[in-house]
Design brief:
alpha+beta, 7-stranded mixed sheet, 4 helices
Length: 152
């Protein structure tokens, strides 16, 4: 009888502590990251899409003829997991959709979009001012975006 009580107590304790984990993503479909500048000449809008072990980068010009360029490459599951591990859906879903005044006075705008667990989350903020809940993931996404600097 005491062994049974001990096993039940241990099981309850383990379950209680397993609930303390950070609220991660179970089923990640895609992560988008981008930036734009409204008063700009040249390629003013950049988008990076991480999906299915593939990175797709697009850049386009402002105006009536956007002249969009697209480049892609593969990404490892480990790299995707490194980004995914920096994302806490509970914290992200509590953020407003727009933070600050993105692209006011041509300061630029940045955003991150997460399609996961059957939902989409998008947060847009002032360029270079990622909220603390997104800083680590955005830093990794910026590095991936930088790897496309020769996309022509």
């Amino acid at each position: 009888m005491s062994k049974t009580l001990l096993l039940i107590s241990l099981s309850v304790t383990l379950l209680a502590f397993s609930g303390c984990k950070k609220s991660g993503i179970t089923n990640l479909n895609s992560i988008g990251y981008g930036s734009s500048f409204g008063m700009c000449i040249g390629y003013c809008t950049n988008n990076l899409l991480v999906s299915d072990l593939k990175l797709t980068f697009t850049k386009s010009k402002n105006g009536q003829a956007p002249d969009t360029k697209t480049c892609s490459k593969t990404i490892s599951a480990d790299e995707i997991n490194a980004i995914k591990n920096e994302l806490n859906i509970e914290k992200i879903s509590s953020l407003p959709e727009v933070i600050g005044c993105p692209d006011c006075a041509d300061g630029g705008a940045e955003w991150i979009t997460i399609n996961a667990d059957g939902k989409q989350y998008k947060v847009t903020y002032e360029y270079g001012k990622a909220p603390k809940e997104l800083e680590a993931a955005v830093a990794k996404l910026r590095l991936l975006k930088e790897s496309f600097k020769d996309c022509n």
